[in-house]
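Changelog-adjacent note: as of this version, every example in the card shows the full chain rather than a window. The one below runs 157 residues end to end.
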Amino acid sequence: MEIRRFRLGDEAALFRVYFTAIHEIASRDYSPEQVEAWAPADLDADLWTNRVRGIQPFVAVLGDEIVGYADVQQDGYVDHFFVSGARPRQGIGTRLMARIHEEARSLGLTELTSDVSKTAEPFFALHGFHVVERRFPVLRGVTLQNALMRKVLARGS
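Full-length structure tokens:
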């Protein structure tokens, strides 16, 4: 598996990862109405393209298939972290998390934060994040549940 930087042209494959992660994995913890509000099949393509180009994620590639992606912003916020619904529990998320930590070190960050789904919360906890606050964002008129999670990074590590 290769972890590389985002490239123009990755947008559609990243949407497939996002969509399947939510519809096939997160759907265990969220209702069909919540899943559809979070990841509608008819999400505006231009909006999506602008979003992923803006966050400049790291992309996990297995063979010639994009199987996951995650970003870390200059302030330490992890905006997107998704593994394909067709590839759960294969170490993809762990490799992406390691890459995010490498980037955080290179940026001199002292903490990482993320708004994490109920589904991803145990994974983030395994990697040293803890819940700061439970949140209930509203997407397309539907209330979801997530948690603001934080990890303090050791200096020089």
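Structural remarks: The first strand starts at residue 2 and ends at 5.
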